[in-house]
Amino acid sequence: DAKTTQPNSMESNEEEPVHLPCNHSTISGTDYIHWYRQLPSQGPEYVIHGLTSNVNNRMASLAIAEDRKSSTLILHRATLRDAAVYYCILRDDTDKLIFGTGTRLQVFP
Amino acid sequence: EAGVAQSPRYKIIEKRQSVAFWCNPISGHATLYWYQQILGQGPKLLIQFQNNGVVDDSQLPKDRFSAERLKGVDSTLKIQPAKLEDSAVYLCASSLLRGGTGELFFGEGSRLTVL
Fold first, then answer.
1. Which of A27, A64, A91, B29 lies 20 to 30 Å from A3 when distance is taken between CA atoms?
2. Closest C-alpha to B31, from B13, B57, B55, B49
3. Which of B45, B91, B101 sits opposite A98 (nearest CB)?
4. How many CA atoms lie within 13 A of A44 on its CB side?
5. Residue A17 contacts residue A63 (beta carbons within 8 Å)
6. pLDDT beyond 80 at B98
7. pLDDT digit string, tens, across residues B64-78
8. Phi, psi torsion values for B71, nearest 5 degrees
């Protein structure tokens, strides 16, 4: 399974943008880049996914490097409710979702 | 739309006892997953079902863990006998689409403490 590398933790102030980086240098051409987040005492929840092009949805934006070896999850205005562990995951056509240790995001008022 | 249901939410047992966790996926979702999440770690995939067939159980400790998905809907994960290191949250997830694009929906998990 292709691996991803994320910082262990990041901090942000409320209402500021947050850029969460992810490196995936061994990504294959058919791997999708998925982001999930896990709030305290809850199961993970889907945030966004992409293949080659940048993606936007109501929760976040995903910026994918041209060589696909890295990506960045962008939260445009962080709120206290965005404090969570964010997982960057490469998903192939076997449907498995293999989690790493993720980035713990702290948001300060 | 109802989410993934899991029970019990919490369970405390002594080592060498047995325990079972139940999962009801979202209606119509053919793929079902069980994950184990130890405190401070990311979830680890234990087993993946497609309908009532096992797709991947390579990380399931088969000497003590078993799982089934009768009729391709509900699923049960059993641990017998439990060890101290089995203390974790057991997460169930389901997915509708295949091929790398489908979103996984997770339940709230079942927290197991083995004393």
1. B29
2. B49
3. B45
4. 35
5. no
6. no
7. 999 999 888 999 999
8. 60, 15
